[in-house]
């Protein structure tokens, strides 16, 4: 794992994921909208290795934070999952015993057994049965062995087919596998508006080694986003100095554009702005009598609306949100949306 720290926003690189810790408290829905506008979504955590990095980075100041996990109440909202991380459930690959799954007797049957001779069946998770473990180190399946020596319960169609072949002569026809169902799912799936009143949302308790806990979705908390962006559009109207303070407090800084590639990325962001102009991190320095980026870089790359861009004290630069997205001099006191850099 590679880690980069900012004043109020932490960037955590985990394989193909980049996690951003946002300290500004929001409800779960507000956090989801915020992440989807500027990043990709609320954090999806594929396994606890990722979670360890999140809580290690964040335990200094925060007690808990939203992640992108939520639950919709009602047995009709349950979904099947494999216990082994990274193994996707594919209903078409599953062979169920006739009439299964069926929640027999009106009980919620949220775990699965494999009948070596006749397919899968759902059953109450509290029942006692032998089980099949999977050892990732040597890619082997093991019958009624200590789970401490293995990776997880057997998961996925390939492992089930191997289990049927390997244990078909066993005296125990019914065996636990790593298939279960519940109502929890990640934010980067689909959610209908009608579901919002019956949800619980998950937070991670950063001072308790990243353990997860359900809480009221309307509570305001910091949160984790994930994505691969460099910039975020903030759809709040602020003066230039207020925008600068916001970016430095919640992200990294007001955006500095130093090359055409960065310019194109910013242009894509400003298309969704709610004001005709968007503040950039470029201001006229009364001390040096020239335009300077907030990153202290001089202006090498530029995209002015005209050649006459001599500055004066109290002026900063905003990009037009329509047209050719040119740069314009504006009075610092004007109120616009703005672009923050994330690193």
From TrEMBL:
Gene3D superfamilies: Mannose-Binding Protein A, subunit A. Pfam families: Lectin_C. Residues 19-134, 175-226, 226-341 form the C-type lectin domain. It comes from the Eukaryota. Signal peptide: none annotated. This is C-type lectin domain-containing protein. It comes from Oreochromis aureus.
